[in-house]
Amino acid sequence: MLGWAITDKGVARRENQDSFYLELSHANDQAVCVVCDGMGGARSGNIASQIAADIFCGDLRLQVKPGMSQKSLKAALASAVSAANKQIYEKARTDADYCGMGTTLVGAVVTPDSAVVVNVGDSRAYHISQSGIRQITRDHSLIEDLVGRGELTREEAKNHPSKHLITRVLGTDQAVIPDLFIAEFEEGDFLLLCSDGLTNVVDDQEILFEVLHGGDPMLACDRLIGMANSRGGPDNITIILIHI
Predict the structure, then answer these.
(1) pLDDT over 90 for what percent of the chain?
(2) Is the pTM of this model over 0.90?
(3) Which residue range forms the structural domain that includes residue 177?
């Protein structure tokens, strides 16, 4: 198992409020990874995403052991999200400088045959293979809800003025409910985590092509960042790519 991670502030933003973490354990043949996209002002968005990444991964480092069942991994991921949410919520509640801050989170524990994935917000996880690209997570957003109810088509959703409205994040409420998913892998497959700075301007088929046919995976990630920036780079962009 190999992994790569990259982040870029984009063209339009003055600072990068995304945070990420990737840890590969060759001894256990396992990876822990997370991407967080902060919000709530120039200073506090960065703080929220960094707290989330640190607490989430620190909590998993204590809980995750080799050979854990998928059910146990789901419980560990949910617990790590809860711990991160609590820390952000308390800091925002007790310090006026951070009032209202929050962050998305998409994270995973990855083994050679599967990943247990958790998400809150609209940062995404994808399963990429020779068969194609599949979004594992479901965005917690107003647009996704409208599409789910049949009130918008996918094509209409791409340019909808409310596409950036998120319905669930870490840190704004005392408790948060994450979604959990299982992705089954075959050798040679990829897991990709990213913030919406990528997916808002680069479509799934372009991501698929670069990952499968872009040669060196780190260079493929670089090119995806470049594509996003060539289209205005309206947001911070973070990518984690794991090759099974």
Answers:
(1) 78
(2) yes
(3) 2-243
